[in-house]
């Protein structure tokens, strides 16, 4: 009847608007490469900030000693302690705790957020045994992984450019986040030095390199998304400092803020963006990352409910609540293999308070999830191709046997299997068989924290 025809028409339109044929993905990849060049050429030259990380040496395996890391992501934060044994022994020991960030702190004051973080750090240290006592007079050292755009001014200082991913704390913007953290640590009465400030992508790159010398880039697909890679310092026109001995500089792309006329945007993306905390910003992130995928599905479903009355005459009130449908729920529905789609049924009931759904409705919802996840995953693959192009690794080089490894991490990549499979398949499709063989995607499990600790080790005040 008319209602189903209408629903089918809306879905069909969505599918067309979200279409990512290979030719389009190549345009996206090319645009990414172009923006990378522009961002490296001059400060403010591109939507891509291409931030100089001050990391000009990646871990070698020789790092030694006891180091801490703090990893502030978008959803959780972790406190980590690693014991590094040097060349022969590697990572001897690691311990961590994970705490979710109370929502009120994401939109409160800078002091409240940093106090909370420092208090957790202090608790973590207070619990440790005598084996972790440092010799008298020796300060503990910490690497701070901070997954928001920061204008670095040295390896352990940098000011916040803006918040992303649902954080909005005005008084932190423009402040040195290391100074903020250090003050909070001091208020806790803890004696600890912040030796390195790194973006999570840079941490993941470092953690990945520690395990595999062929790692040259890192991509995060979590609450948000971003990428970092190793650039030749000479290829960074905006860098006016001394050329590092290594000749290399890690660049934090801040690719979440990428945008291009080639990106397939729908009415749902436009309204999501307009109503977000950061309208006009982070458009790539809003298409591909975990914070937003479920919300895009909710918006499309809401429109179908309004126009095709698939849940009856009135739109179920919960369906109108922004961000109520989270990406882990979307992913669970997408992965539902039961013949009657029980998982979909339960999530509709428990999250959206919609009961008595027909199988037909549940199938429609799985299809929605598939359309939105596929677009995100394929665009993420195009982004990676853009980085590989910049590195000159998108073509076959005669006689070259060395692998090019991209370290990936983040909850979305790790848990949303349909998404990560689609992303990897699309990358293979884009690269072709021959080049595809030399490119490896490696899951770097929680490399960002360990990476920050490794970078803190190589910038220790005691070296
Ligand atoms: P962050 O990006 O905050 O540092 P993570 O890398 O742990 O943290 O990613 C967490 C994000 O990953 C969540 O916000 C969510 O969007 C996504 N995620 C977590 N679990 C799942 C899941 N099962 N399916 C899909 N996405 C998930
Ligand atoms: Mg993270």
From TrEMBL:
Keywords: ATP-binding, Glycolysis, Kinase, Membrane, Mitochondrion, Mitochondrion outer membrane, Nucleotide-binding, Transferase. Transmembrane segments: none annotated. Residues 217-457 form the Hexokinase C-terminal domain. The keyword Iron does not apply. Pathway: Carbohydrate degradation; glycolysis; D-glyceraldehyde 3-phosphate and glycerone phosphate from D-glucose: step 1/4; Carbohydrate metabolism; hexose metabolism. One of its GO terms (cellular component) is mitochondrial outer membrane. It is found in: Mitochondrion outer membrane. Its EC number is 2.7.1.-. Coiled coil: none annotated. GO terms for molecular function: ATP binding; D-glucose binding; fructokinase activity; glucokinase activity. The keyword Protease does not apply. Residues 11-210 form the Hexokinase N-terminal domain. It is a single-pass membrane protein. One of its GO terms (biological process) is glycolytic process. SUPFAM superfamilies: Actin-like ATPase domain. Belongs to the hexokinase family. This is Phosphotransferase. It comes from Rubus argutus (Southern blackberry).
